[in-house]
Amino acid sequence: MSDFIQKIKNIAHFTIALSANLWYGSPSKKLTVIGVTGTDGKTTTSSLIYHILIHAAKKASLITSVSATIGNTSYDTGFHVTTPSPFAVQKFLRQAVDDGSQYFVLETTSHALDQYRVYGIKYEIGLLTNITHEHLQYHKTYEKYVKAKAKLLKWSKLGIINRDDKSYEILQKLCNSRCKTYGLKNSADYSLDISKEAGINLAQFNKYNYLGAYAACHELGLSDTEIFKAMKTYKLPPGRMEVIYTNAFKVIIDFAHTPNGLHEALSAIRQQYNPARIIHIFGAAAFRDDSKRPIMGDESASHADTTIITEEDYRTEDPQKICREIAEGLLKNKFSEVENNLYNGTPKTFTVIIDRKKAIEKALSIVKPNDLIVLTGKGHEQSLCRGTKEYPWDDKKEVLESISKMNK
C-alpha cells in the first residue's frame, strides 16, 4: 500500500474516530483509561492491571485481544482483533460509564494508533511493554513501528516504558518529561523483582509484564499490599502458556507469534519443565512481516528438539512458501528435514505439515514419556483464515480431541 493511499485511509479513520467519540458523548472523559501497547505481553499486562483493580474493589472494565469485559458482562471482540473499530470501542466505553466503572483498561495495537482509530480517547496512563520484530510489512521500518506505538505515550497524561527494551532510546526522546520507566537491568523508576516481592514464581518475560502492571497500578494510587495480594491470585489469560494436558507428556498452547515471543516462551518452557524433548508446532500468518519468518525458525531451532511447521492464517498467500521461509532458520541451525520418522536418530529434525490438525496428530504419534508438545501462534483464537474465509478452529479443543481418539 502506498504512503498516499495509507494517508487517505488514516484521514478516514481519524474522521470516524472523532465521529464515534462525539456520538457517544466522549465517555473516556468520565473514566480513568489505561492503555497498554507493545509487541508482546499486551494481553497479559492489560488483564493483570484489570485483575488488580477489581481485587482492590475498584469498578473496572477491559478490552483485550481475548474479549471485552464491561462490568460483569463479557463480549467476543471478533476474529483476530485486538483493538475493535472506533464505534465499537466508544460504545464499550459508554457502556462502562453507564455501568459505573471508574477504570477502563484498553489493549491498543500499533495499527489502531497509527490509523488514529483510538484518537479522542483520554488516556490517563499509556504503558508500552516492548517493541520487537513484528508488523514491518505494514510499518516498513522498525523506527516507524516505534513511532506508531509512541502515539499512545503522546496521547496519555503519563507514559510508562520498559527501560530495558531496545526501543527505549527512541522512546525516551519522544516521551520528554511525561514518562516513567520500569526495568530489571538498567536504572529505572520501578525496578522491583516481583517474584521476590509478591512471592510468586515467574518466567523472566512475565517479570516484565508484572512489573509494568505494578508500575501502572502504583501510579493509580494502589498500595503494594493491594497489588501483591491480587497478583498471587492472578491466572494468565486463555492461550497464554496454558498447560492443556499433563500425563506421561505435557501439551502447552501459547499465543507467541514473533521471534521474541518464541524465544521467551520456549526458553521459559525449557527452564520450568525441563522436558526430555520439546516438540514445537507453529507457523506464521500471512501479510504480517515476511522477514521475521526465518528468525522464528531460528528461535525454534535454538530451543526445540523437533519442529513441525504448519499453517497459521495463511490467507491468500501460499502456505508452502511461508513454511519454506520459516525452514530457512531451521536449516541454518543444522536441523535435518524429514517426512515421517522425526525421531530417526538424528539429533534435530523438522518437517512441514500444512494441515494444522494433521500436524497435531503427527506430534502425538511421536511423543514419548517426559516430552512436551508446544503449539504457538493461535493461543485463544477461535478461527483459522484459509484463503478469504475464516474456519472455526481451537488449538486446545483439537489437541484434546486428538488425544481422546488416540487413547481409545
Span of the ends, CA to CA: 51 Å
How would you characterize the largest beta sheet?
8 strands, mixed
| Average pLDDT level | 92
Q: CATH fold name of the largest domain, please?
A: UDP-N-acetylmuramoyl-L-alanine:D-glutamate ligase
Annotation field: number of helices: 15
**Rg over C-alpha atoms, rounded to the nearest angstrom:** 21 Å
Shape: globular
Q: State the share of residues found in helices, binned by percent.
A: 40-55%
What's the CATH class of the largest domain, please? Answer: Alpha Beta
- The CATH homologous superfamily of the largest domain is called Mur-like, catalytic domain
Uncertain spans? none
Supply the helix-strand structural class.
Answer: alpha/beta
Structure description:
The protein has helices at residues 3-23, 42-55, 86-99, 110-114, 136-139, 142-154, 168-175, 194-198, 204-219, 224-231, 259-273, 293-303, 319-332, 356-366, 395-407; strands at residues 32-37, 60-63, 68-70, 73-75, 103-107, 123-128, 156-162, 179-182, 242-246, 250-254, 278-282, 306-309, 336-337, 349-352, 372-376, 383-386, 389-392. It is an alpha/beta fold and 408 residues long. The chain has two domains: 3-231, UDP-N-acetylmuramoyl-L-alanine:D-glutamate ligase (3-Layer(aba) Sandwich), CATH 3.40.1190.10; 242-407, Alpha-Beta Complex (Protein-Tyrosine Phosphatase, Chain A). Strands 4-3-2-5-1-6-7-8 form an eight-stranded mixed β-sheet, with helices on both faces. The chain has a seven-stranded mixed β-sheet with strand order 9-10-15-11-12-14-13, sandwiched between helices. It is globular and about 60 Å long. 50% of the residues are buried.
